[in-house]
Design a protein that fits this description.
The chain has helices at residues 30-42, 58-66, 100-114, 133-145, 159-168, 189-196, 235-255, 259-268, 283-290, 299-308, 319-322, and strands at 3-6, 9-12, 16-17, 47-49, 75-80, 82-84, 94-96, 119-124, 149-155, 173-177, 199-203, 274-276. It is of the alpha/beta class. Residues 13-307 form the NADP-dependent oxidoreductase domain.
Length: 327
C-alpha cells in the first residue's frame, strides 16, 4: 500500500479505525478483531487508530495484545481527553479533561495497555473548554520531549483552536469526521490545516457504514449499537439519507466498485494530505475497504459526485455529542 504524509509523519494511505472492535457497534469478537488487525498489517494498512475511551480502555488492550512482537510494523495513534467520571445518578458520566494532570495520567495508562514505550500520534480527543489549549498542548509537548509520544494531534477542534495549539507545539494531524455526507471541514478546517502544514485524518469516511449499503434502517443493527439512535438514522432524516445512499450505489455501479469503495475513493481524491481511517471489526470488510486504494476517480468523476449527491439530513451526533465538537 502507498503511503501519505501527515505533516512529517508517513503513514499508510488508508488506516484502520479500531473503535468498533471493542465498543459502540454491537457485540465484540476478540479473535476476529485480532485477525483483522493482523490482516491489515499483511496488506500494508499499518496506521491503527484507537482511544482510551473506546471500551473504555479495552480497545487499547486489544491492540496491545494483537501487536505483541509486531510493534515496529505499525503506526499507533490513540487519543485522550474524555475521562469517565461516574456519579450515583450517572454511572457512565464522562467529562472533557485536557488538564496537564490528565495528560500525564492518560499517557501512562495508554502505554501500559498498548504494551509499548511510545505512541506515534497522540491526539486530544475533544477540546476541554475549561483548560486553555495552550496548557493542554504544552503538557503534550512535554511527552514528546520525554520520548513517550512522537507526534501530536487534535480531534474535532475549531480553526482558531488549531492555530493556538500549533503555536505552542507543531500539530501533525487533525482528526475530524469527513465523508460524502459530512462535508463541514471543507469550509474552514481543511484550509486551516493546509495553511499550517497539518495533515487531515478522516474518521467515519463511510458514514458509519451507511454509505456502504450495509444497513438501511437502524432496526437492522444490534441492540447495543449506538447508531440506532443517531439523528441521521431517524424518521424523515433517514428517508432523505436513503436517497443519498442510493445515489452512491448508482455511481459506484457505473465505476465498477462497491458503494463503500466509491466513498473511500472520493475521500482519497480530496488530496494527498488526507488519510481516511474506515473502521471495521471483520476481515471481509477490511479487504473490501482497502481495495478502495485502487479506485481511480478523475476530476470529472469527483465533480459529478459533488454535483449529484445531496447533503445529509440531520446532525452527526445527538445534542450532547454535538456540544463537544468544533471546540
Amino acid at each position: 500500500m502507498k503511503q501519505r504524509n501527515l505533516g512529517d509523519l508517513a503513514v499508510s494511505e488508508l488506516g484502520l479505525g479500531c473503535m468498533g472492535m471493542s465498543a459502540f457497534y454491537g457485540t465484540a469478537d476478540e479473535g476476529e478483531a485480532i485477525a483483522t488487525i493482523h490482516r491489515a498489517i499483511e496488506l500494508g494498512c499499518t496506521f491503527l487508530d484507537s482511544a482510551e475511551m473506546y471500551g473504555p480502555f479495552t480497545n487499547e488492550e486489544l491492540l496491545g495484545k494483537a501487536l505483541a512482537g509486531r510493534r515496529d510494523e505499525v503506526t499507533i495513534a490513540t487519543k485522550f481527553g474524555i475521562r469517565f467520571a461516574p456519579t450515583e445518578d450517572n454511572p457512565t458520566n464522562r467529562v472533557l479533561d485536557g488538564s496537564p494532570e490528565n495528560v500525564r495520567r492518560s499517557i501512562e495508562g495508554s502505554l501500559r495497555r498498548l504494551g509499548t514505550d511510545h505512541v506515534d500520534l497522540y491526539y486530544l480527543h475533544r477540546v476541554d473548554p475549561n483548560t486553555p489549549i495552550e496548557e493542554t498542548v504544552g503538557a503534550m509537548g512535554d511527552l514528546v520531549s520525554e520520548g513517550k509520544v512522537r507526534h501530536l494531534g487534535l480531534s474535532e477542534a475549531a480553526p482558531e483552536t488549531i492555530r493556538r495549539a500549533h503555536a505552542v507545539h507543531p500539530i501533525t494531524a487533525l482528526q475530524t469526521e469527513y465523508s460524502l455526507w459530512t462535508r463541514d471541514p471543507e469550509a474552514e478546517i481543511l484550509p486551516t490545516c493546509r495553511e499550517l502544514g497539518i495533515g487531515f485524518v478522516a474518521y467515519s469516511p463511510l458514514g458509519r457504514g451507511f454509505l456502504s449499503g450495509r444497513f438501511r434502517s437502524p432496526d437492522e443493527l444490534e441492540a447495543g449499537d449506538f447508531r440506532r439512535h443517531g439523528p441521521r438514522f431517524q424518521g424523515s432524516a433517514l428517508e432523505a439519507n436513503l436517497a443519498l445512499a442510493a445515489k452512491v450505489e448508482e455511481l459506484a455501479g457505473e465505476k465498477g466498485c462497491t458503494p463503500g469503495q466509491l466513498a473511500l475513493g472520493w475521500v482519497l481524491a480530496q488530496g494527498s494530505d488526507l488519510v481516511p481511517i474506515p473502521g471495521t471489526k471483520r476481515r471481509t470488510y477490511l479487504e473490501e475497504n482497502l481495495s478502495a486504494a485502487s479506485v481511480v476517480l478523475s476530476s470529472d468523476d469527483v465533480a459529478r459526485i459533488d454535483a449529484e449527491l445531496p447533503s445529509a439530513v440531520g446532525d452527526r451526533y445527538d445534542s450532547t455529542g454535538m456540544a463537544t465538537v468544533d471546540g
